[in-house]
Prior knowledge:
With 153 residues, the chain is mainly alpha-helical. The protein has two domains: 3-89, lambda repressor-like DNA-binding domains (434 Repressor (Amino-terminal Domain), Orthogonal Bundle), CATH 1.10.260; 107-148, no CATH class. It has helices spanning 3-17, 22-25, 31-38, 46-55, 60-72, 76-89, 107-124, 129-136, 140-148. Helix 1 packs across helix 5, helix 4 crosses helix 5 (60-72) and helix 5 (60-72) packs across helix 6 (76-89). The radius of gyration is 28 Å and the shape is elongated.
Amino acid sequence: MSLRKAYAAVLQLLRTRRGLSQHDIAGTVTQSHISQLEALKTSATLEVNEELASALNLNPVSLLALVQSAHEQKSPREILQTALLELDGIELLDEQLPTKPKKIRSRQIDGAEKKWNAVQALKAKGHSQAEIMRMLGIPRSTVGRYWNKSKDA
């Protein structure tokens, strides 16, 4: 079963089990969008999932656990127990998690900084650009660029 199909089936099951129409659970998610979800014409974003879960008085993770349960044809308990074991295994079960991603420097930036440091260190020792080019095995244009470049430029 595809995830889209599982999501549609679970959404419809929860809605009808609670005696609600598509219109009843529509809020920021429109009735037509809910209809498209149930008709397998679109898939839900995390934001849509959160809105629908709220309209159904569920935690968004509970809704996704039910969807995954239908998708894998396992009980919701099995899905949640597996999730608990996985999170415990990577030691994140009881952690406070970041609310936004860190800015991670790319390898290219790290490599460029290392080359700049090497060029500046050799320049400070009195080596010429040609010597530095041979010593580091980098092109003359790169040595020239790092020769005159300031640290924060």
